[in-house]
Amino acid sequence: MSKKTLMAGNIAIAEGAILAGCQAYFGYPITPQNEILEHMSKRMPEEGRVFVQTESELAAINMVYGAAAAGCRAMTSTSSPGFSLEQEGISYMSGAELPGVIVNVMRGGPGLGNIGGAQGDYFQSAKGGGHGDYRVINLAPASVQEMMDLTMLAFELADKYRNPVVVLADGFLGQAMEPVVMREPVTELPSKPWAITGALGRAKNIINSFEMDPVNFPPRVKLLLRKFKKMRRNEVRYEGLNLGDASLVIVAYGSASRSALTAMKMARQEGIPVGLLRPITLFPFPYEALSNLAQRINDFLVAELSSGQFIEDVKLAVGLDKRVALVNQYGGVPLLAEEILEAIEKMIKQPVGG
Amino acid sequence: MTKFSISELDTVLYHRPESLEDYPFHFCPGCGHGIVFRLIAEIVDELNIKERAVCVACVGCSVNSYHYFNFDGLESAHGRAPAVATAIKRCHPHLVPFTYQGDGDLAAIGTAEIVHACARGENITTIFVNNAVYGMTGGQMAPTTLVGMYSTSTPGGRKPSLSGYPIRVCEMLSTLDGTAYVARVSVHNPAAVRKTKQAIKLAFRTQLANLGMSLVEVLSPCPVNWRLEPVKALEWLVKHMLPQYPLGEFKVIEAVAALKKGDRLCTKK
Ligand SMILES: Cc1ncc(C[n+]2csc(CCOP(=O)(O)OP(=O)(O)O)c2C)c(N)n1
Predict the structure, then answer these.
(1) pTM of this structure
(2) Which of A3, A50, A119, B101 is 20 to 30 A (C-alpha) from B16?
(3) Angle at A207 between CA B90 and CA A66, to 5 degrees
């Protein structure tokens, strides 16, 4: 059996980035993800890699842009208000086809909100978030192990598609301590002949997302759209539990799915056949998996730490003729398994059409 | 009429620098940007750094920088060029990234990025073109617009009571310990252009010697947005901008002064 190390979620993200060959980290302090910045301030120089504590999240994302343009694996980490500031930069990265990893350990909002965990950035993160027609892959970990694994995957997918990738975690996971199996470090990084490395022995490289004449721009957008289509085809990830005999399926991601898992077990002890579908990618969203489930299941219970954002995609997937109920918390407080169980009991007691 | 081929002439006195593409500038008649681009290209050739130079373009009239230069270049979001250049330099210290920024880009939306690049003493170079207006968006007030000056967003002239005072960027940034070389120059006549070239060259050499942040502010005419004919615009620059923005060197750390002194010794012999 491989050795396990007890680790906090935020540290697992930082170590995952280092294992994935992250060459440059840029960040600005914000709770509840400061441990990532602090850990990187020590580890990156130790590894001979770049670390800069920036003057703002604007600077951080634009440094990620610069490092990515220079052909390096680069990352920033932040929490919700900082993520809002980074949207322009993420749009530029997608427009200029630059890979890069943005970690958002979500907290309560809107506004300054609070430092509790939440999932209120769902729309902003899964639907693009900044200006223009673009998408970014969103990976949503639900355990400390996944904080590490999905951070590593984020770097791989960013390079594969030359597009930013978001790791969308939340404050509860960031602080959670769990045993983690350490992964092997990535030793071979992809070559990037397009990068800004100096025009030595080759024609000059240009990285931009600007066309003076509007008629020249749609081809670039089309190129991006083709990539997003490929992501939808190839990168959908989710986990299904107890779906075979389920008459009700909870749909939840991230730390909400942890409470959902407990609620599912409790319900089964009461003899209620409940299943769980946990999207791991929020973009691309597992529409197909859900719509397939909807062929034989009528009841879906969405558990989220936001005020009804994630549920919109579930409804879109299962169709309007299904019962889709919401059980949630928002603003930085956790959703308890008991609350979800209560919602399950209420839902099955309610006659269809009632 | 006699036609000369290049080989028939003894010396070529003027040619396109290798670092400048045969690509049309998009600038209006009488604009100063084109002069600055040519100077940078000449300097990159002379310092033999075409294979290492990286132009970090800003958002403004100079947005197309990377098309004009014949070396690597990239775009940055409005105001963020110093952050982009910081990352490039940190990742590849052998590269020679420089930002090319307008006054709206550097002194308004991007104030934090330039101040902190200077404070960190990033080993990068900034060419800062001050034309006292937002050129690209049609002549609105810039942070450098003079008191009383007309712009499309200060209809009766800039009033301090309403829109405050112009920022003297060199004076402000030279107070930061991370800056190694800070100078203000102008392109209003050939002598001034030559001084501009000297300053920009020294800025690049500051970076090549790993001495820290170098910044050259270039006062530059914008006849179209100033609503003046090109020659009148130059006169206006001398009359109104020079008193507000005195030319000169605002920060020359000892090591940079030593670079300069070395130059003088070389030219003497
Ligand atoms: C975030 C953002 N805000 C505003 C703009 C619009 N914009 C483009 S260029 C510019 C001002 C450019 O003026 P300056 O930096 O002085 O350069 P110049 O065009 O005069 O050379 C503005 C406001 C933008 N592109 N992005």
Answers:
(1) 0.96
(2) B101
(3) 20
CB-CB under 8 Å, B66 with A212: no
How far does the centroid of ligand 1 lie from the alpha carbon of residue B209, in Å?
Answer: 32
The domain of A324 spans 239-349
* Residue B264 pLDDT greater than 70, yes or no: no
Query: Domain containing A322 — which CATH number?
Result: 3.40.50.920
Number of domains in chain B: 1
CA distance A52 to B89: 12
Q: Do B88 and A65 touch (CB under 8 A)?
A: no
Q: How far is the CA of B136 from the centre of ligand 1 (A)?
A: 6
Same-domain check for residues A228 and A335: no
Mark out the alpha helices in chain A (DSSP H runs).
9-19, 34-46, 57-69, 80-85, 87-95, 122-126, 144-161, 171-175, 218-234, 254-269, 287-293, 310-318, 337-349
Q: Convert the pLDDT of each residue in A19-70 to its tens digit.
A: 999 999 999 999 999 999 999 999 999 999 999 999 999 999 999 999 999 9
Contacts of B247 (CB under 8 A, 6+ apart): B184, B185, B186, B192, B195, B219
Report the pLDDT averaged over residues B23-37.
96
pLDDT in tens, B151-162: 999 999 999 999
CA distance B99 to chain A (A): 12
Which of B74, B80, B87 minimises the CB distance to A24?
A: B87
